[in-house]
Amino acid sequence: MKNRVRLYRQSKRGFTLVELLVVIAIIGILIGLLLPAVQAAREAARRMQCSNNLKQLGLALHNMHDAQGHFPSLAYQKGYPTDGFHWRVGWAPFLFPYFEQSSRFTTVMQIPEQGINCAPYNTNATVTHNGAEVVNPYAGNITTLLCPSEQVNEPVDGALGVISYRINLGDETYNNTASYTKDILNRGITSRGDQVTIKMGSIIDGTSNTAAFTESTISPSRAQILSLKGGVAQSSADVYRMPISLVEECRNNRNGSEVGTAYTMSLRGTRIGDAYGPIYNAVHWVLPPNSPTCSYNNNEFAFCAASSYHSGGVQVAMCDGSVRFVSDTVDCKREDYNNLATSTLTVGNSGKSYFGVWGAIGTRNGSETIALP
Questions:
Q1: Sign of dihedral through CA atoms 193, 195, 196, 198?
Q2: Which residues, in sequence order, are CB contacts of 247 under 8 Å at separation 6+?
Q3: Alpha-carbon span 22 to 28, nearest angstrom
């Protein structure tokens, strides 16, 4: 009987402290091993959704071309300069009808013909229409225009929707104070205004070799302008003249001084439909992915870089509708680049891009082919 009691008591013995700690340590190790895999799986899913968004934009681009015979302009500019509403409408609103945002587009096109006091820089959630309040067509986010990996997913500039994707403006710089009567920026797939239209037949290098859209991260707030992810780095040279020294300054100084937070234009991607300069909705194919956007004179002149929160590069929608991932380490210098010394890269460049494979992706008429995985 005593032996039975002794065996019963031994069978009820609990874990010792050491054993418990060992079990906890094992569980912690397993969690540590699993967590990166879970995070990687989640990022893979986000990256796939981002790719789908870009595919939707590529499809919308083709549908617009089928319907209207040309690609959208960087800025609509109807009635410029007397029409203070339409001239700053960017490319995204003109693709609205082609990714299930027709009601927004209808409202956009009623401005100002039907008295809606609403420009793409109006930050209110509602606007007045014939004495009644209607929803601002530029307010609120659109899922198709927002990368799931983006860290900014709420409006930053009033109620205006934010946008993760930018149209291809080519490998030339941009002066937003120049005359709108003549469009000389013809290296990308969009023109600066509706005086010149780019068509499918304009893509001499082939649609599979030419980019339509890519990613560029959104500035988080006026009080937190990051010089790399979504921000604007102040340069010391005039961007419009674009000397090689400026390109190298921006390439080598990814944490350059930031544009003062008092300037609204230093906010990248925070206005879904505003085309005041390229700062909100375009990319120049000059600096490699995840470089800073560079500005001179508080964004009066700027060239804008692609960037993303995907590890190691950015996704690019090509003009044929395919989506490719381009690494940060993509070649960005033509074979004779180091011999250019103090050359000035003036507007109106022709032929092969100065900026290697990356520049070739961004030019539609450089007589180049590319080899990406």
A1: positive
A2: 286, 287, 345
A3: 10
N-to-C CA span, the chain: 78
Quote the number of domains for the chain. Answer: 1
Q: Which residue has the tokens 């990051």?
A: 226
The DSSP H or E segment spanning 17 is helix 17-68
User: What are the Cα distances from residue 348, in Å, to 145, 168, 236, 284?
Assistant: 31, 16, 23, 14
36 domain residue, yes or no: no
| pLDDT at residue 262 greater than cutoff 50 | no
Q: Is the model more confident about 34 or about 28?
A: 28
Two tokens at 103?
Answer: 């009601």
The 10 Å CB-count burial string (b at 16+, else e) for 77-105 is beebeebebbbbbbbbbbbbbbbebeebb
Residue (of 352, 355, 275, 357) closest to 316 by Cα position? 357
CA-based max dimension of the chain: 107
- Short-list 351, 299, 336, 321, CA closest to 98: 321
Whether the CB-CB separation of 321 and 359 falls below 8 Å is answered with no
pLDDT of residue 49 exceeding 60? yes
Q: Which domain holds residue 226?
A: 49-362
Whether the predicted pLDDT of 256 surpasses 50? no
Which phi and psi angles does 296 have, rounded to 5°? -135, 140
Mean pLDDT (the chain, rounded): 75
Residue type, 373: P
Tell me the residue ranges of DSSP E strands in 87-239.
Answer: 126-129, 132-135, 165-168, 174-175, 211-215, 232-234
pTM of the model: 0.81
Is residue 372 in some structural domain? no
